[in-house]
Amino acid sequence: MRDLVRPAALALALSLSLAGCGADVAPGGGEGDGAPAAGGHYPVTVENCGEKKTYDKAPQRVVTNDVGITEIMFSLGLEDHMAGYVMPDDKGDLTSVPWKDGYGKTKWLSKEQINKELVLDAGADLVFAGWNYGFSEGEGFTPAALGRVGVDSYLLSESCRNGQGKARGVMAPLDALYTDLRNLGRIFDVEDRAGALIASFRKQVAEAQAKAPKGADRPRVFLYDDGQDKPLTSGAYAGPHDIITKAGGDHIMKDLKDSWTTVGWETVVARDPEVIVINNYGDTTAERKRAFLKSYAPLANVSAVKNDRIVVLDYVDLVESPRNPAAISSLAAELRKLRS
């Protein structure tokens, strides 16, 4: 990956006031286990992409990269702990989400690529980004490079590398979202807020699943991000996998043990998706992507193209973000129409 119904329960969860909880943390995504820490909430230890990290206090000047990561912070009400965010201005409507006020309270540091100089100029004490969501060896911008200049890092769990080269993904996509919300709740001492948000999201997803197509009624779905020679798509560890499957679809690239990756068009044709979901972002509009899919000769007999069953979701719906549950609800409604 380069670098729509929202329930009242979500807004209610976001308004919950912080209760001082004083609980220590268990490594990596445990459900509230761990013993109380001596002397209050801190120090706390979390596990992030396989590495245990201890915090003696909450970071005060966080720089985030990209829209989904930024909105994770906003959804937890952590604007006061942020020095600013970095992201292009092609990431859709930022005014209709429950945490939209975060954008007005937090500085937009750059619409260009995040880099070490920008982070240092912002006085950051922590960068929340991910592999291919800002961090890149090719650009020389890595957690190790930041550590050498005294800046800590937290990696987006969707982007964790799994030990197979640079392939990414170590857990189901929604589990990655819940893990980051839970970890950040502990790091910033807002565990009650994180727990309420996760509970609200789980409820929203369960409600969508209850109405979604099941069994043989599940339509085959392909996620199209971009690319003409080879399509960029989602494997089992990127957000679209859980969005598609929990909305009642059969994700045709579920066997790819990676997050965002390319495949051949011949594979898409052979698996004959009944629905194509377009990822809407960037210089190539959703309408141009749709036009390409409908005009590309090898796809002419693919069911989704032949029957014009093409759905558009925004980038921030599909990458790890607090908009994922609403995207499941939205896609589930579209798939129900297909089977009605």
UniProtKB/TrEMBL annotation:
- InterPro entries, from UniProt? ABC_Transporter_SBP, ABC_transptr_periplasmic_BD
- Print the keywords alphabetically: Signal
Instruction: Fetch the Pfam families from UniProt.
Output: Peripla_BP_2
Which SUPFAM superfamilies does the UniProt entry name for this protein? Answer: Helical backbone' metal receptor
What PROSITE patterns does the record point to? Answer: FE_B12_PBP (PS50983), PROKAR_LIPOPROTEIN (PS51257)
Renumbered to this chain, the signal peptide range is 1-22
Belongs to which family? Belongs to the bacterial solute-binding protein 8 family.
The identity of this protein, by name, is: ABC transporter substrate-binding protein
**Protein origin, superkingdom:** Bacteria
Fe/B12 periplasmic-binding domain span: 61-340
